[in-house]
Amino acid sequence: AQAFQGLSVESPAFEIPQNSIVLVKSYGLTVANRSLNLRRSALWASSNPRVATVKDGLVKGISPGTATVYA
User: CB neighbours of 35 closer than 8 A, spacing ≥ 6?
Assistant: First the structure.
C-alpha cells in the first residue's frame, strides 16, 4: 500500500449537460513525492445520483440540478 501526503482532483467545478460525460482525473502525491493517477482506484461518489452519476472518474449528467462528486 502507498502512503499519500495529498490528493488533487482536476476540474474541481464544472457544468455537465444532460446525457453528457466528463472525465475527472484525480492524483495522489506519495510521501516520496511521486504523482500517481488514482482515477480508476479512487472511491467515487455523487451527492445526488438523480443529477449526476460517477464511476472511475467518468461523471454523467442525468438531469438539471446540483451535485457534488467526491473522490
Answer: 27, 28, 29
